[in-house]
Amino acid sequence: GDQDSVIPLTGSRTLVQNLARDLGLKTSIPYRVWFEGKQVGGWTQVYGEELSFATIRGASHEAPFSQPERSLVLIRAFLQGRPLPETFS
Question: From the record, what ranges are coiled-coil (predicted)?
Fold first, then answer.
């Protein structure tokens, strides 16, 4: 979650960017917002076809407890191999 005090957002994003660079992956989907219903669910960026970074807005370290609906959207998208929603639903 973007309010995680255990694993900070900025450190995680930097780590993923460095990993993508080391693997030679280019950004395929630029950093953008994703939606859960009619609200911002978080932010995401995709590198190539292999690596994705996503946050859950308003979530703490255990995201499903603090933002269950947004967490479910992210998990479903991951399991179904789909991108996170780009528009309101």
Answer: none
